[in-house]
Every structure is written in structure tokens, then in C-alpha cells.
Protein 1
Amino acid sequence: MRLLIIGDLYGQIGTASAIARSRGAKVAHVADIEGAMVALRDGQGADLIMIEVREDIEKLVTLLMRERFNMPVIACGVHNDKDAAVKAIRSGAKEYIPLPPNEELIAAVLEAITEETQSLIFASAAMSKVIAMADQIAPSDASVMITGESGTGKEVIARYIHKKSKRASGTMISVNCAAIPENLLESELFGYEKGAFTGAVARRIGKFEEADGGTILLDEISEMDLRLQSKLLRVLQEREVDRIGGSKPVKVNIRVLATSNRDMQDVVKKGTFREDLYFRLNVIPLNIPSLRERKEDIQPLAEYFIEKYSKANGIPARKLSDSAINKLTQYAWQGNVRELENTMHRSVLLANGATIEPDAIFLQGVPEQAVASGGGQSRTMAAPSANNTGGLVGRTVDSVEQELILDTLNHCLGNRTHAANILGISIRTLRNKLKQYSEQGAPIPPPPTGTE
Ligand SMILES: Nc1ncnc2c1ncn2[C@@H]1O[C@H](COP(=O)(O)OP(=O)(O)OP(=O)(O)O)[C@@H](O)[C@H]1O
Ligand SMILES: [Mg+2]
């Protein structure tokens, strides 16, 4: 967890830093917004920025967005200055912390932001096997290819491997190859020199260099275009990167983890993924089974999520009734652990008796029996049957498509990757559609924080 503080926090920087350090954060300090941008472009990563409320927070947030630095900004101000707090949040700050810094409050913010507290819950034999393998290979520097359906926990496993590795004290940088537009992914990964192209106003260190001494997670690697794949192959072979417009390569010491929810052999066969790169990345293959294949994990995961969301909402955690547990274990969970997490989040908010009963568990799809006998029905959404289109007749294909896409995205709490998977379209197609709807004025659910 890397914290970057801008300004001296009204003289409280010493106390704030000490609290953050005692909670395991690495703290860096810069005088102003310009200093922060220089540090970030220079590869000094940050997971969280704290800034004095009197600084121009809107400018900071705009600069971060423009240069694609993705980290939350927390405003700090003098106790009880309500107007300043409101203004900071309107300008794009995620939180407002009153000063002098309160130990508990800072700890809570760090905990909410950092993924280091993320738990890995499992009880099944299938998952125990995967974890045993992860434990065994974590200390080596070998590349790992983590595959599995969307929402099975690939990123959770990747973080687990990093934490158990010799590089645990280094950083883990995660890059979603599908979420970043093609033309930006190259500069994001490799960085660039000042003047390398129009708009390259200053040198920018790429993610490979930022991950130096640590781990880089290339999420959804199957979506990387072929030209970048050959550049990546060179990084893996030579352990050096060429910044765009750079005159000499820069050595990097990184471990590479990659994830994909596609069948990699299939994309290799289709010619959209280089076979030699696949072999380099697939030194250790880890396949995460779907939740359907490890039903013993459903109840412990559900209880964990109830606990988590009850705590976050300040309400006591309710127990699941037996019939609720039954309902959960019967369900097909096409969206895997993520769908279970979203479902339990809703249940926590909807339940009102002493226990969580089946009526507080909203499942959008079909029970597993129906999937099994449904002749290839494999989507979470229940499709209208062929003779039941009455409600749709009279509507255009475009409008039905828009409704389906936005409903699915809402169901996934804004997660683009998961929604695209359920819809059976590529994430790029989904993005293009959303852009089009947004231009037409439709409200688009925002992505969950920290994911995209
Ligand atoms: N074993 C687990 N214990 C606790 N939480 C889990 C576990 N597996 C997954 N989760 C939670 O489920 C959600 C989805 O997990 P994750 O993002 O790792 O999935 P993924 O396989 O990378 O999905 P995608 O392919 O869509 O990117 C996250 O919120 C994660 O914290
Ligand atoms: Mg993922």
C-alpha cells in the first residue's frame, strides 16, 4: 500500500504519516500537485493520495484522469469544515478526513482502499488443490497463467501468489489489457520519453518499470493485440523494456502473472494470440474451477460476504436460514464468486427478519436443474422463451438490446468484464455500445471503484 501525501496537511503530516506507516503503508510526500505529477510520471506509484483541502483538488483529479493514473484521492481538512468537505467531494475526492488525524479513521480508510486485507475463502477439495499448487510455486519467479471463468477469483489468486512470493515487499501492479484502449495500452505498459508523440509532454514511466522488484499482473491477456504481444515477448525474453521514443532499453526485474477467462489454446489456434508468448506465460498453468464445480465453497463464501457487507453498512450480520442455504447451493452461479458476492450484498440490505430467508436472495437466472436440462442454456439471464415475445413485439432490436445491456451491467454492479461475459460479447463491443448510449444521454452505471 503506497500513500502519497500532497502538502503538509496543516502541519499534521508527521502524525498522519506515522499512523499510515504503523498500518503497513509506504508513505511519500510532495509539496504540491506539480510535484505529485512529476513523482507519478517518474514511476513512483501510489495506491492512494491524500491532499490538503485548500489545494486545487479538481485540477489534481483532472490531471490524474487525463494521464490515466488510477488511484483514489482523499481530501484532508480542518475539523468540521463542512463546506470544504462538500467542495472536495464534488471536485472528485473519494473521502474527506478531518484533521487532526484520527488513528481509527485513517486505518479504516487504508483498509477500505488496500486490497491487502482481501481474504481468500475456500473449503472445497478442488480449491484446496489450487491453493496448494499456488503455495508451491509462489516463491519461484516463474510466470503463471491463471485461467478460469469470469468472477472465479483469478485476481484474488494472483494477489495471493504475490503475497506469498519473495517479492511480497515489492509492489504488485495490475494492468487490465481489455479495459485500456489499444492505442493507450502500449504507452501504459512501456512508458514514453518526452516528445515521443504529440501529447507526450513529459517522460512517463510505464507499468513494467513501476513493477520493478515486484510483480506485474497482466489481466485478460488474451485481449492484447498481436503487435504488443511481440513487444511483451521481448520483455519476457530479455527482461528489458523499450520506452516509446527511448534510445536505450531499461532493465526490469519483474515476475509476470497473467489471467484469462478465455481458452488460451483456442485463441492460439485462432491466431489471435502468439503461441511462443503463450508458452512463455504458461510456465505454470493454474485453472480456477467454476463455483458450480466446488459447491462446498458456496456457504462459507456467502457467510463471509454477509459479514463483510453487514460490517460495511453498520448492521449486525444475520445468519442464513437452512432454506436460504439450499437456494444458494442449488443455483448455477454462471457469474461465479462475483455473482455470489453481489447477491449477498443485496441480501444484506434487503433482509429484515432475524435470519436471511430465501425471499431476500434475488437470483436473476435459472436454477441449476434448468441449466442442466436446458439444452445449452448457459447464460445467467433467463431468456424469454420463443413463444413469449409478446412484450417485445413493437420494439426495435436496438432498444431491446440497449435495455438488456444496461440491465445486465446493473446486475453486475457496473463490472464491464463480467457483464460482457454474461452477454456473450467482447468487452470492446460493450464499451462501444456504452459510449453510444451515453452520447444519447442514457445513464450508464459506473464501474466499481478500483476495478477498471
Ligand atoms: N476465494 C475467494 N474468497 C473471497 N473472495 C473471493 C474469492 N474469490 C473471488 N472473490 C471475490 O469475488 C470477486 C471476483 O473475484 P476476481 O476479481 O478475482 O475474479 P476474476 O476471476 O478475476 O474475474 P474476471 O474474469 O471477471 O476479471 C472479487 O470481489 C473477489 O474479492
Ligand atoms: Mg479479473
Note: Residues 118-122, 148, 150-156, 259, 261, 301, 337-338, 341, 417-418 surround adenosine-5'-triphosphate (ligand 1) (CB under 6 Å).
Protein 2
Amino acid sequence: MPVPFLDLKQQYAAIGAEITAGLTEVFENTAYILGPKVRAFEEDFAAFCGIDHCVGMSSGTDAVHAMLAVSGLPRGSGVILPPNTFTATAEGVVMAGLVPVFADVDRGTWNLSPRAVEAFLEENSRGGRSVDPRSGAAVSAILPVDLYGRPAELAEFENIADRFGLLLFEDACQSHGASRGGRMTGSFGSAAAFSFYPGKNLGAWGEGGAVTTRSGEMAERLRSFRDHGSSRKYFYSQIGHNYRMEAIQGAVLGVKLRYLPDWNRRRAEAAARYGELLAGCPVELPPAEEGVVHSWHLYAIHTEARKELGEYLASKGIGSGLHYPYPLHLQEAYADLGYGEGDFPVSELNSSRNITLPMFPEITPGQQEEVASAVAGFFG
Ligand SMILES: Cc1ncc(COP(=O)(O)O)c(C=O)c1O
């Protein structure tokens, strides 16, 4: 039986009609950009994250860019982030006129290592500030990524940021509804960026993103930035962008948000089931941790034979993915930062070993058994 990597059609079959009813209102009002549907979604999503403000954006990439651009970080200063992430995390840093400063991830958690960050900041401390020895940029912020939906060590990063006088931002593009120690992702640090790319746990019918923040002032700057830096009609207080969320996406996301807790619960059940089914296979499974609610956006396993395993799964009609096969510090786009092979051994190892298995709320136990028996069959 073929098993797709992701199956959005089932979601459409279940709630498509409910969403479409809301869209008619948008079409009848002809208010296609921002407007009441986006405003209502922003309020609901802020409440969901346990934070004061949410500002809808045109994508997760734009959300990362916008939150850093309006944060007041000195131009040319450094932002620490992991190399094991989607390129958009680092793109946002560069687009905001800042310098990506990579630090390694933890072998056990696959997320940015607080130890690596702390050691980097201590080793490179000069007269009360930490300076990236490669670029000469004074480090001004830390940007952990909740890879696969596992919340990074955000409270620990808050303490590190405080200790070194840095700001903390979060790339929560994969972690809608995740929490750590009872605190939701999106509620830590200065601001967090979310993506509503269709395949995300909370996905739009097109592109979408948001920034969450506790600061009313930052929310205002974000609202202005996403709308060409306008402060009021005909007046521009900053250089901005067109990062406005479409009304259609606000309407879609407003409906889908109500289903997200149940979808995430079903993903967690599927993750637990994979854990049982794959227990006898010679692969590394995602870390199980107390006090951490994972959003299970992606279910990754590690094996040295990931290429062959992926090909074998494909031959059986089973979808898989690579998230992410080449770490950012070795990508051509970031070559001018001067990193090389061996700079981040754990990120490089994790990049070479990860493979992601089919994961979506509607996946059935039968489909998961099919995946697990194919994995077991591959290893003989
Ligand atoms: C970690 C991470 N950051 C940023 C993004 C960018 O989001 P978008 O695709 O909505 O621009 C994504 C989404 O793919 C992501 O997974």
C-alpha cells in the first residue's frame, strides 16, 4: 500500500466546506488584504500562543525578516543560529542587514545547542561584548529554530541572552502548538516567526506567516513594516515592505486554528506509534523528553544509510523527505561567510543522516505499519 509523505486532501475533505463558507464572505466584501478576517485570526493565534500580539504576514520567510528588521538591532551585528535549518532562517538575518553566526546543534536533541552558544559567547567576549571572530560582527541576538516542531531550549536561551545582553528571537515556523515547561512556542524572547505554508501543522491555502510578540511597540512597528512602513495614510515612518497577509488566508487559518489542538494530538499519537513500531530497527529515533510538547511537524529518524533507505521506501510507494540534507554553513549562498567543512561536526553529521517519514494527522495505524515494515525490511 503506498503511503504519501503528506496528505492534505483528507483535511480538505473534512473541513473544506466550512472554510469555503468563510471565503464567500471575503469575496462578497471584496476586502482581499488584511481586514477583519486577518484581525480576528491574529487575536486568536496570539491567545493560542499565550502572548499579547500577533501580526499576520505574507510568509514565514517574511516574518523572520520583519521581526529582525524592526527589532532595532545594530546593522551589521551578528545573529546566532543553527546550520541545520531551512535557508529562510538565515535569509531573514541577511535581509535585515545582519550577519548569520552559526553555532552547532546538539547530537541528542538535533536543535541549537545552548552549550555551544554559551561557549562561543564566552570564548569570543571582548570588553563586555561577544564578537564573531570570522566576520568581526558584534553579536546582538540569538535565533534558535524549533526544528521538526521540537521547542528549542528557549528558557535557557532567554537566560543566556540576558547574561550576554542579547535579544532572543525564535524561528517557530515548524512548532505551532508546541510547548516547553508549560510555555507555548511563540511566547519566548522578543518575538517569534511562524510559517503557514500549506504543509505546516497550521497551513494556509497559499502563503502565510506571522510574528508573535509581547511588545505592543514591536507589534506596531511590524504592522507598519508589513505595509510599506506607513504610519498613517500617505505617511511613511520607515522603509518597509509589502508583507501583508491576504484576507483569504486569515479566513482559512481562523477556521483551521480551531482544529489544530486535535490535529497535533493525532500527530503525537502517530509519533508514539512510530516509536513503538521502529523500536527494533537500527535507526536513531527522535528524543523523548519530559515537559516538552512537540508539534511533530516532521518525524525524522537518523541512519547512515538514509539515501538507500529513501530509495527503498520510494520503490515501495512510500514518501520520505530530507530535512535538511546540507547544512547552511556549507551552502553556496553563505559561502562569503567563510565557513568550511568540519566547522560544525554535529550539524554535518545530522544533515547526512536524517530522513523524514510520512507524518500527518490523518495517517492510519495501518499506513504506519506499512512504513515501519518497509524500514524493517530494508534493514533485513
Ligand atoms: C524553519 C523554517 N523557517 C522558515 C520557514 C519559511 O517559511 P515560509 O515557507 O512560509 O516562507 C520555514 C518554512 O518552510 C521553516 O521550516
Note: The domain at 8-103+110-254 is CATH 3.40.640.10 (Aspartate Aminotransferase; domain 2).
